[in-house]
Amino acid sequence: MTHHATVVVGAGIAGLTTALALAHEGRPATVLERAGAPRDAGGGIQLPPNAVRVLQQLGLGRALAEHAVRPVGVEVRRWSDGRLLSWTRLGATASFRYDAAYYTLTRATLHRLLRAAVTEACGAGTVRYGRGCERLAESASGVTLQLSDGTYLTAGTVIGADGLHSVVRRRFADDALRYSGCQVHRTVLPGGSDGSGRFRPGPARVVVWLGPDRHCVSYPVDRDHSMNVVAVVRAPHATGPDDLPGTFRGWHRDVLRLLEAAAETGPQTWGLYDRPPLPRWHSARVAVIGDAAHPMLPFLAQGAALAVEDAVTIAGVLGRGGDLASYEAMRRHRVFRVVGAVDAARTTHHLADGARQRERDLRLAAEPADARDWLFDHRIPVGATR
Length: 386
What we know:
Order of helices and strands: EHEEHEEHEHEEEEEEEEHHEEHHHH
Helix content: 25-40%
Number of helices: 10
C-alpha cells in the first residue's frame, strides 16, 4: 500500500490551490479527484481582492491579468426602474487600495490556470483523476483511504477539499444538505459577433438588480464580452420555471433582455443548498476546507475566495510543522463572520417594496468607501504564517 505524506481530496479550486500552496511551503501533496478527467464546465466566477492577492503570491498574477476581466465597479440597481442604489469602485481603485485586483472570469479558465500552475510547481502526476475517496479510517499512525478504483493508500495528513458533497466531511458529521429556499438559473451569453455586450455597453462592470423574492447578476467573463448571467429566485422546491423571463415580469428592460437571451441558450438550473455548521473542522490527521467545511450561499461572491484563504492557511500551518487545530483557530472567526453576512444578504437581497426595502436602499446609498475593507483587505501572505 502506497504511503503519502499529504493527500488532498478534490481537484477543484480549493484542492488545486491547496496543492500549489503546499508546494510553495516545500511540502508536496497528492491530489485525488473523482472525475476521470479535468472538467472545464461551469459559468462565471467573481474573484475579489482577498483571493486574488493570495493567487498572485502563488504565481498566478500574470496569468490572471491576461485572461480575466477587471471590472471598473459594482452597480446595485432597483428591480423595476433600474435606479442606481449603490456604486462600489473597483478597477484601479481596488488594485491600489487592496494591492490586488477584483477579477471576473469563467470557472473553466480559473481551473485551467490552477492546473497549469500545479503541474509546473508539483509535476504532471500530482492530480490523480478517476480516484475519488469512498471512505477513510484514521489511526494514531496515519489515515487509510479507500478509493473509487478499488485501491487503497495511506497518508500522514488528509485535507478534504471535496466540496458540498464531501466524503471527508463524514469524518466529523453525518449531516444532510439543507435547501435554502432559493434556486439559481445560470448561463454564459457568448460575446463577439453574438453581441451580448449590447446589454450593458461601456466599461466592464458587475451589475446586481435587487427585487422582491429574487435578484439578478451579470458581469463579463472574457475579453470577447461574454456575459455571465445569474438569476436567483425564491421557490419552495428546487425546480426550474418553464418561463424564466416570465418569472421576472415587470422588471427593468435590461434584466428582461438578459433573461430572454439566457432562455434561448438553455440556462442551467439547480437548487441552492448548504449544510449546518460543523462543530469542528479537524481531527489529529484530517481536516476539511472550503465548501467541505463551511458551504455558503453565493450572495457575496466569497465562497471560492474563502476556500483560497483556507488553502493557504492550512498549507502555512503544515509547512511550519503546526497541527490542524491551529488552522481551524486561525480561520473560524473569519469564516463565520462572512457566513453571517451571507445569511443576512439572503434576506436583504429579496425584500418586497416597503419600509424595510427603503431602509436598505438608504443604507446602500450611504455606504462609505471602506465598507468592504473587512472582506477584501483580509491578508494571509504565503509563507508568512511561519
